[in-house]
Amino acid sequence: MTSPSTPFSFVLEIPAATPEAAHRHFLARLSVETDAADVFLDLDRKKKGFVVVDSRSKDAYAERHIPGALSMPTRTISAESTAHLSKDDVIVTYCWGPGCNGATRAAARFAALGFRVKEMLGGIEYWVKEGYATEGTAPQGSPVYPERGGP
Question: What is the pTM of this model?
């Protein structure tokens, strides 16, 4: 209990989980998430066992995408559109960036179809911020979101 002279703590208001509970929680997150650096390193080392899927629109994919990624806009993911994929592979979904839940929606659709799946945190935005090459019509290294002029 805090005394009137002790400032309130937003961090400590809810007690931290036990180390065991925290360990389970973070392992669970890692079982469904990956990041651009890990995807890049595995692609660069030609690791097998996963397929990268761009869940954005066909136009966005044409403009810029991760080399080798498949274009499968979220709303097109179905038993028919995924029939060519192996359920032995892990599907890694991505979209625009942290403010986009398209990769999450795509991952949910893949999981419902019986695929093992991970979402790539940060999307194409963080792929580009990390300096990794892309394919498509956008110049290498150009910002994912062009700056807009003022009023």
Answer: 0.89
